[in-house]
TrEMBL record:
This is 3-isopropylmalate dehydrogenase. PANTHER family: 3-ISOPROPYLMALATE DEHYDROGENASE (PTHR42979:SF1). Catalyzes the oxidation of 3-carboxy-2-hydroxy-4-methylpentanoate (3-isopropylmalate) to 3-carboxy-4-methyl-2-oxopentanoate. The product decarboxylates to 4-methyl-2 oxopentanoate. Binds 1 Mg(2+) or Mn(2+) ion per subunit. It comes from Ruegeria marisrubri. GO terms for molecular function: 3-isopropylmalate dehydrogenase activity; magnesium ion binding; NAD binding. It comes from the Bacteria. Its cofactor is Mn(2+); Mg(2+). GO terms for biological process: L-leucine biosynthetic process. Residues 5-357 form the Isopropylmalate dehydrogenase-like domain.
């Protein structure tokens, strides 16, 4: 059987800690796969900048193109976030470069409630219990990449520009896949925009409606303004199935939704490219959280998001929903037994948690 080539980019801060834990889980489940997994490691983010002066090397980009999937930890930190490096977002962030150059336009961020002590989320238990939603974030356009952008000097006056840009085709392909994802879940999409104030929002809403009418009439669709959606997310999270949002709104909505899951350390993600002729897609899996400099190096980060990202890889890149479910159930059981990392009010270390998950597999 053909080997599965995985490029592992642990990155910065807690990235290497949670990725090591996630690889332990992958190693434990690998015998159940019918393909051998070959793992290559490389630097990304600040770690790469210190060694090579760039946040991602061309060689790494080439490795990424030749891989079946990428497992990414986290990147960034106080020393690297504001270096004002020329060349736009892909020069400033290895992750942005990977997303853009691999055309990983679809960022799937599932969020659910977990068996946690009631006081571990800011919500009443009956409000979040059963919540199970997915933020589908457009990942390669919008204000993250629009031109013109920059900080400009006019004598002693400086100004800064970012551009919120969407091409029709970029909205269409995100909507298509979001409806497909919803059709596999509970069949409901809530599309988010600011069509009341933004031109991109107007086009967004129009195209989502067209794609819905033309291809996915069986999926239920509603629209919410982004501000109202954030309110609804904390007021009644159980009403959502798939939330379709642009790059920036999706970023904000998913961190907010992490409060429903109990911690940023509980949110995995998959970033997918367009379907290729052989039916596969370029894919990058990573926790939604960042490098968490405040707790890095202590071995106390919650590895669940990274572990669940491996689960998403088993499902989406290896076609093994059964194994993905096994990983998710193991995480669920470990939490239910009260084995909790510090972000969830417990005292389990990263390795304690990962070892318990492996034991449950
Ligand atoms: P963050 O997600 O790193 O941390 C926010 C808070 O959540 C911190 O208090 C942190 O300790 C906590 N937290 C996050 N993940 C956790 C985990 N797994 N277990 C326990 N606690 C966890 O966001 P930030 O502080 O805004 O950003 C820190 C750095 O990470 C910045 O450089 C930022 O640019 C970068 N960042 C990277 C990514 C990424 O690589 N995908 C995502 C977000 C932020
Ligand atoms: C995320 C992060 C990134 C983003 C940063 C690190 C570029 O916040 O993956 O959610 O804003 O997309
Ligand atoms: Mn984010």
């Amino acid at each position: 059987p053909q080997q599965f080539r995985l490029l592992c980019l642990p990155g910065d801060g807690i990235g290497p800690e949670v990725i090591q834990a996630a690889l332990g889980v992958l190693q434990a489940i690998a015998p159940a796969l019918d393909r051998p997994v070959e793992i290559t490691h490389d630097l990304a983010g600040g770690a790469c900048y210190e060694a090579h002066g760039v946040f991602l090397r061309d060689e790494t980009m080439e490795l990424a193109r030749q891989s079946d999937a990428i497992l990414f930890g986290a990147e960034g930190g106080p020393g690297w976030d504001n270096l004002n490096i020329p060349g736009g977002p892909t020069a400033r962030s290895g992750l942005s470069r990977l997303r853009k150059e691999l055309d990983l336009f679809a960022n799937l961020r599932p969020v659910r409630s977990w068996p946690l002590p009631a006081e571990q989320t800011p919500f009443r238990p009956e409000l979040v219990s059963g919540a199970d939603l997915l933020v589908f974030r457009e990942n390669t356009s919008g204000i993250y990449f629009g031109e013109p952008r920059g900080i400009f000097e006019h004598g002693d006056r400086r100004h800064a520009i970012d551009t919120q840009y969407y091409a029709q085709g970029e909205i269409d392909r995100a909507a298509q896949l979001a409806f497909a994802v919803a059709a596999d879940r509970r069949g409901k999409v809530t599309s988010v925009d600011k069509a009341n104030v933004m031109e991109t929002g107007e086009l967004w809403r129009e195209r989502v409606d067209v794609i819905h009418r033309t291809h996915w009439p069986q999926v239920e669709l509603d629209h919410l303004y982004a501000d109202a959606c954030l309110f609804e997310l904390v007021r009644a999270p159980c009403r959502f199935d798939v939330i379709l949002a642009d790059n920036l709104f999706g970023d904000l909505l998913s961190d907010c939704a992490a409060a429903i899951a109990g911690s940023l350390g509980m949110l995995p993600s998959a970033s997918l490219g367009p379907e290729r002729a052989d039916g596969t897609r370029a894919a990058l899996y990573e926790p939604v959280h960042g490098s968490a400099p405040d707790i890095a190096g202590k071995g106390i980060a919650n590895p669940a998001a990274a572990i669940l990202s491996v689960g998403m890889m088993l499902d989406l890149s290896l076609g093994r929903k059964d194994l993905a479910a096994r990983v998710e159930n193991a995480v669920d059981n470990v939490l239910a037994e009260g084995q909790l990392t510090r972000d969830l009010g417990g005292s389990a270390t990263t390795n304690d948690f990962a070892n318990s998950v492996v034991a449950k597999l």
